[in-house]
Amino acid sequence: MPKRVMFMSPGVTEICNYDLPKLEPDQVRIRLAVSSISSGTERANLLGDPKLSVFGDKTVFPRIQGYSSAGVITEVGSDVTDFKVGDRVAACWTTHSEIVTIAQTNVYKLPDDVSFSDGALLNIATFPLALSENVN
C-alpha cells in the first residue's frame, strides 16, 4: 500500500497509507522520485496558521499537501496519447505521496539529461513568473 505525508493537526505530520483512486481516462499514474518542498507553503500548512495559509481562514485538518514533483509514469488512462508507461515526467499540483494520479494536463516530459530533483522544481519555478492582472 502506498504512503503519503499528511498534516494531522497543527505541528503534527504523519506518514500514512492510502488507497489509489480509480484511474480516469484523462489521467496518468506516477511513481514519484522527488516531491519538492516550498518552505513557506509547507510551514503555513503544517502550522495551520490562517495568517500564513494559502487557504485563508480555513484550518481544516488532516490535510494533504504538496504540488511540485517528478517521477516515472506507471499507468495511463484510455484517452492519454502524449504519455506512455516508463516516461520520465515532472508534475504540477501533486501531493507528497509515493504514487499520484493526476490529469495529463499537469504533466510534462523530462529530458533524460534533467534530473528528477531539477524536474520536481518545475511548478515552484513558475511562481515568480506569474503576473497579476492588475500589472500594466
Brief overview:
The chain has helices at 39-47, 116-119, 122-126, and strands at residues 3-9, 12-17, 27-35, 68-76, 88-92, 99-103, 107-109.
Q: In DSSP terms, counting alpha (H) and pi (I) runs of 4 or more, how many helices? A: 3
Which stretches are poorly predicted, pLDDT < 50 over at least 5 residues?
none
Shape annotation: globular
Strand content: 25-35%
Strand order of the largest sheet: 6-3-4-5-7
End-to-end Cα distance, whole Å, is 50 Å
Could you estimate the helical fraction of the residues in percent? 10-25%
How many strands, what sense, and barrel or not for the largest sheet? Answer: 5 strands, antiparallel
Number of strands: 7
Mean of residue pLDDT values: 87
Topology order in helix (H) and strand (E) letters = EEEHEEEEHH
Notes on the structure:
The longest helix has 9 residues, at 39-47. The chain is 13% helix and 32% strand. The mean pLDDT is 87. The chain has 136 residues and is α+β, with helices and mostly antiparallel strands. The radius of gyration is 16 Å and the shape is globular. A 5-stranded antiparallel beta sheet has the order 6-3-4-5-7. Strands 1-2 form a two-stranded antiparallel ribbon.
Topology (elements, then pairings):
Blueprint: E1 3-9, E2 12-17, E3 27-35, H1 39-47, E4 68-76, E5 88-92, E6 99-103, E7 107-109, H2 116-119, H3 122-126
Tags for this model:
single chain; 136 residues; alpha+beta; five-stranded antiparallel beta sheet; two-stranded antiparallel sheet; 3 helices; 13% helix; globular
